[in-house]
TrEMBL record, chain A:
The chain crosses the membrane at residues 7-28, 98-122, 143-168, 174-195, 237-259, 279-302, 388-408, 428-454, 501-523, 543-568. PANTHER family: D,D-DIPEPTIDE TRANSPORT SYSTEM PERMEASE PROTEIN DDPC-RELATED, OLIGOPEPTIDE TRANSPORT SYSTEM PERMEASE PROTEIN APPC. GO terms for cellular component: plasma membrane. This is ABC transporter permease. Residues 592-601 have a biased composition (Basic and acidic residues). It is found in: Cell membrane. It comes from Streptomyces parvulus. It comes from the Bacteria. Keywords: Cell membrane, Membrane, Transmembrane, Transmembrane helix, Transport. Residues 571-601 are annotated as: Disordered. One of its GO terms (biological process) is transmembrane transport. Pfam families: BPD_transp_1.
Length: 601, 515
């Protein structure tokens, strides 16, 4: 009870801090809200002192930040979220409407994600159901590629190809259910690929557990074993699913833009840029509340799925037995990536020749040219170093922070929810407000969010791991907390968290580029990969190669990261471990499982 | 060994438990329909049923209403483009004032003008009387902040007789008829101002189309106003949608969801059929502004060197893919009188020799072509011997620094005919010591004097001459290097006729627009 109360207080403190932080944002960043509001209303209006004074009077800014914030909070208590500073309209109906559209889009996207995740795991499930998993390594390349595809690219391609050229589904608007399909695909495919990979990572462990063996021996169908295996693994993913729920609701800006959907992502983005504080506060608060609901729901679902086993510490460990690593795919991907980069480095990435605009790939320009006639191979090659170093550094830091904070879920849980609910632009603005606009700001802004899914994943794995029998047994043998953490918990949690971090590495590179318009991060004409994608997106239809080249290397990076992580998996030393199933021998019939050496003591 | 997951489940009963749970969400579907946007969509095909004549036009505009369609800000342009509002005057093709709600006007002494109204009614049925016009203009002058067209002007409007509105200004204002053509000085009926402070143009304007429904920043519906003084419009109404993304607008036009798409980006033009894309010269000029009071370009010789190093031909031809005209001066070809009267730049310095001086170049990405222009400029300046650092940000995050003179060079797309419709206004605000929008930080006595002279001139032709004399001085300072005059591309479906391609971007749909 006391713990719950503490968690609740912590949550309220975070939400309150966030709302106050937003309320003080203009004063922290020294950006006059009268000015940004004027620009949002009419970009061409010259900001003369009289005009700015007029707006300040209109918005009641003269009283200072505390006065403004106090008024807003006072109104909120009465259920009045104030009036938009830009339009003067009531905030609440607008935000609720946008939230409705976003929630619906998120719902359909989750459906797509679930199907995608199912497809990603299909092979593992099929093999696992037949108990032929042992010794085989999951491929993962296709799903890693899918996971590293930027949403806006998928969205543009779907809109142009399916919407315009084939005419199968409406290319834009938000008027009925057929309008939800394409945007939901754009959001759901990458999200589903990430979730699918995480699930696929856990499934072999579940299939390796003794119950699966026993179930097969008893003659249960492969189908129901597979179903139970999914049920066994899903609780570890539910918290991440919760993050996706909130992330897709508030952060689908690019997709909302391409398909012209009046969603919350665009609303909060515009409000953040214009410093329309009432809208921004209301929108963020709505997302934070959604995050709380999502967390509660996932926790409930996890409890329903895992049942009393979690409480009683009666789970067995989900460690996937380490099959022999296949080193070929990662080597191959690394070689291709290396070759592209090496070839590109010998060329000039900045040499413009506008006469050679958007040329298709030829011998002279193997990847074609961009809108200013620059060689794309050169740009991809030269961008690699910046992109990789930066993204890798941020991912490493996020992994460290994520695992450390994941170890203290009571503190980090509400923090994760809150951070994840804040729109990325707002995070960037808040980070800028705190640390200023230095060179490290974009990295900090992206890192400030990137740790959250990793912490959630770590916490979820840890929760399950703590409930396993071997931990109880080790504790029974007199092991201290430090020993448990160092020798049992961390070795169990780190590898999946690392693979998760690598899976998200391309996403980090894209997130970095998406902050460019705030003046953070790489600036043109830098050939950073995210920037390459963004600057060539308008030409995606006329010159597909211009987006294909950076997207392909990013996807290659994703595939490399995932397969290499698989190869990096440390071989498990034989250690005393209760309840760890040995890998079922590939060819062995279920009935032959009793031949296994007694790793289960 | 416990089997917690396994033992609780009887596989045979599983499916029957699951199915209803999966179906339950489907019951929510009717509730979800409120999550969709209202209006517009693919349903509005032929709406010929209404009155049996003319179908509704489906129009996509690039900028959603920012201030609930208040006529005093940028939304005013939107209302006038859709044919909802009108002022006393309008702009003709040559940029001079033409009759609109006022049939004629005359100047009465230095500080007074008299406008004779035509016989017109508001969309709510009341007559357009001098008193109503005077009241409407009075509300505009009282707005806080004041509309851009009235900045620095104090005017009083008063009815005089049953057809005449008399407008007096505190200072002599030779361009008042031009000023009144501004969309922000549209005339609305008394009821538009009923609710405290807010102005509601729904059904209270005088144009050929009446706004019947506004769905925030998503869409708006308009019906034809049958009693319009200029005759009944041919289209029975307009379904307007606000689509901010240029690619999305072009896509919607290609799928046949739209009849007219405003401002198609250059990058998307090639994806439209040749007949579908119509381009017209605009008063928007993209120039390179050089900071004349601090940093590298304080030195007029280096500014001249930068000018000499620029090859402006590539911008119109390659970056704008032909949808632009090479930069000739502050005013482009859309300002029709400028070309014939232009004189040579006055007082140019000799080009110096750049020796690796650093230049901090900046631009914004709200217009997708500008970062490309800036990158080409960067390369050309580097070839000329400068070292260039480029910054690209969102406009509102950049303008403040630019006005404070924090950059050495700035690529700006500027509308050279501001809300006042007066060609001299842009020179005064952008290139004089006291100018409110002086990104070039130019403060030159000769320029100031020339601009002041032009501002004082009342006669239209002489005022134009004076404006070009000032332009010659400004160009002579090399603080502004015109790169390209943009053409705006409007996507128009094959079946549509009579779209107004307005270089001032104040009109789009008129009485003759139909499909």
């Amino acid at each position: 009870m006391r713990q719950r109360l503490a968690a609740l207080v912590w949550r309220v403190v975070l939400a309150g801090g966030l709302v106050c932080g937003i309320g003080l944002l203009p004063w922290l960043t020294h950006t006059d809200p009268a000015y940004t509001v004027l620009k949002a209303r009419s970009a061409e209006r010259a900001p003369t002192p009289e005009v700015l004074a007029g707006i300040r009077r209109q918005l009641g800014l003269d009283g200072g930040p505390l006065h403004v914030l106090g008024d807003w909070l006072g109104g909120l208590v009465r259920g009045d979220a104030g009036e938009s500073w830009i339009s003067g309209g009531d905030v609440l109906p607008g935000v609720l409407q946008a939230l409705g559209a976003s929630l619906l889009l998120m719902g359909v996207a989750l459906l797509v994600a679930a199907v995608t995740a199912g497809l990603v795991c299909a092979r593992t499930l099929r093999l696992g159901a037949r108990r032929r998993l042992g010794g085989r390594r999951a491929g993962g390349t296709a799903s890693a590629v899918l996971a590293s595809l930027p949403e806006f690219l998928v969205a543009s391609v779907l809109a142009t190809v399916v919407g315009v050229q084939l005419g199968w589904l409406p290319a834009l608007g938000w008027y009925g259910f057929q309008w939800t399909v394409l945007p939901a695909l754009a959001l759901g495919l990458p999200a589903g690929a990430v979730l699918g990979r995480l699930l696929d990572d856990l499934l072999p462990g579940a299939f390796g557990e003794p119950w699966a063996l026993a179930a097969a021996a008893r003659g249960l169908t492969g189908r129901s074993i597979a179903r139970q295996a999914v049920r066994r693994c899903v609780p570890a993913l539910l918290p991440n699913l919760g993050l996706f729920v909130v992330g897709l609701t508030g952060g689908a800006v690019a997709v909302e833009q391409v398909f012209d959907i009046p969603g919350l992502g665009r609303t909060t983005l515009q409000a953040a840029l214009a410093q329309d504080l009432p809208v921004l506060q209301a929108g963020t608060l709505a997302l934070v509340l959604l995050a709380v609901l999502a967390t509660a729901a996932t926790r409930l679902a996890a409890r329903l799925l895992t049942g009393p086993a979690l409480r009683d510490g009666a789970l067995s460990s989900l460690h996937r037995p380490a099959p022999p690593a296949r080193a070929l795919p990662p080597l191959l991907y690394a070689a291709v990536l290396g070759a592209v980069v090496a070839l590109g480095l010998t060329r000039d990435p900045l040499a413009l020749d506008t006469g050679q605009k958007l040329r298709a790939p030829t011998l002279a320009h193997p990847f074609g040219t961009d809108a200013l006639g620059r060689d794309l191979l050169a740009r991809v090659g030269h961008g690699a170093l910046d992109t990789l170093l930066m993204a890798a550094a941020i991912s490493a830091a996020a992994l460290l922070a994520g695992v450390l904070l994941g170890l203290v879920p009571r503190v980090s849980g509400p923090l994760v929810d809150t951070v994840n609910a804040v729109p990325p632009v707002l995070v960037a603005l808040l980070v800028t407000a705190v640390v200023g606009g230095g060179a490290a700001t974009p990295a900090l802004a992206v890192g400030a969010v990137a740790w959250a899914p990793l912490a959630t994943h770590t916490a979820a794995l840890l929760r399950q791991e703590r409930a396993t029998l071997h931990i109880t047994a080790t504790r029974g043998l007199g092991a201290g907390r430090r020993y448990l953490l160092r020798r049992e918990l961390l070795p169990a949690v780190l590898p999946p968290a690392l693979r998760h971090a690598l899976l998200r590495l391309p996403g980090v590179a894209l997130a970095l580029a998406s902050l460019g318009f705030l003046g953070l991060g790489a600036q043109p004409p830098s050939p950073e990969w995210g920037l390459l994608l963004a600057e060539n997106q308008p030409y995606a239809e006329r010159a597909p190669w211009a987006v294909l080249a950076p997207a392909a290397v990013l996807a290659l990076l994703g595939a490399l990261a995932v397969t290499a992580a698989g190869a990096l998996r440390p071989p498990r030393p034989t250690r005393t471990r209760v309840g760890v199933g040995r890998p079922a021998d590939g060819q062995a019939e279920p009935a032959g499982a009793h031949k296994e050496p007694a790793a289960v003591r | 060994m416990p089997f917690p997951l396994f033992s609780q489940i009887d596989p045979r009963t599983m499916p029957s438990h699951r199915r209803p749970r999966l179906l339950a969400p489907l019951l929510l579907i009717p509730l979800l329909s409120s999550c969709f946007a209202s209006g517009g969509g693919g349903d509005s095909g032929d709406d010929g049923g209404k009155g049996g004549d003319g179908s509704r036009l489906r129009v996509a505009l690039a900028f959603p209403p920012a201030e609930n369609l208040s006529p005093y800000g940028a939304d005013a342009t939107l209302l006038s483009r859709l044919g909802v509002t009108e002022g006393l005057t309008s702009l003709d093709a040559n940029g001079s004032a033409a009759p609109a709600l006022a049939e004629s006007w005359r100047r009465d002494g230095d500080k007074a003008w008299e406008f004779t109204l035509r016989d017109a009614v508001f969309q709510d049925g009341t007559a357009v009387t001098p008193a109503a016009v005077a009241a409407s203009l009075g509300k505009a002058t009282g707005a806080d902040p004041a509309p851009a067209a009235l900045e620095g002007v104090t005017l009083t409007a008063r009815g005089s007789g049953d057809r005449v509105v008399r407008i007096t200004t505190d200072e002599p204002d030779p361009v008042l008829p031009l000023r009144l053509s501004s969309p922000s000085l549209a005339v609305l009926s008394k009821d538009a101002y009923a609710k405290g402070g807010r102005v509601d143009p729904l059904g209270h304007a005088t144009g050929p189309f009446e706004l019947t429904e506004a769905n925030g920043a998503t869409s708006a519906s308009l019906d034809r106003f049958d009693d319009y003084w200029g005759g009944r419009a041919q289209a029975s109404g307009i379904d307007a949608r606000f689509i901010a993304d240029g690619t999305a607008r072009a896509n919607a036009l290609r799928t046949g969801e739209l009849d007219i798409a405003e401002a198609v980006p250059v990058a998307q033009a090639a994806s439209l059929d040749k007949e579908t894309r119509r381009d017209t010269a605009t008063t928007r000029t993209t120039s390179l502004l050089l900071n004349a009071s601090s940093g590298t370009f304080q030195d007029a010789g280096l500014r001249a060197a930068a000018r000499a190093g620029l090859d402006t031909s590539v911008f119109a031809k390659d970056v704008y893919e032909g949808y632009g005209d090479p930069g000739a001066g502050v005013y482009g070809p859309a300002v029709t009188w400028a070309e014939g009267k232009r004189t040579k730049p006055v007082g140019r310095a000799d080009a110096g020799k750049p020796d690796g001086e650093t230049v901090h170049l900046a631009t914004y990405d709200n217009r997708p072509e500008l970062p490309e222009v800036a990158q080409v400029v960067k390369q050309q300046l580097e070839k000329a011997g400068f070292k260039v650092k480029l910054t690209v940000r969102e406009y509102s995050r950049l303008e403040g620094d630019a006005l404070d003179g924090k950059f050495d060079a700035f690529v700006l797309a500027r509308n050279t005919l501001l809300d006042t419709g007066d060609p001299v206004a842009v020179l005064a605000s952008d290139y004089t010591c006291d100018g409110g929008y002086n990104i070039a930080q130019l403060c030159d006595e000769g320029v100031d004097r020339a601009v002041a002279d032009a501002e004082k001139t009342a006669d239209t032709a002489k005022r134009q001459d004076a404006a070009l004399a000032a332009e010659a001085r400004i160009l002579g300072s090399d603080a502004v290097l015109p790169l390209v005059h943009q053409r705006i591309i409007t996507g128009v479906a094959d079946s549509v006729q009579g779209v107004i391609l307005d270089p001032y971007e104040r009109t789009l749909v008129g009485t003759g627009t139909r499909r």
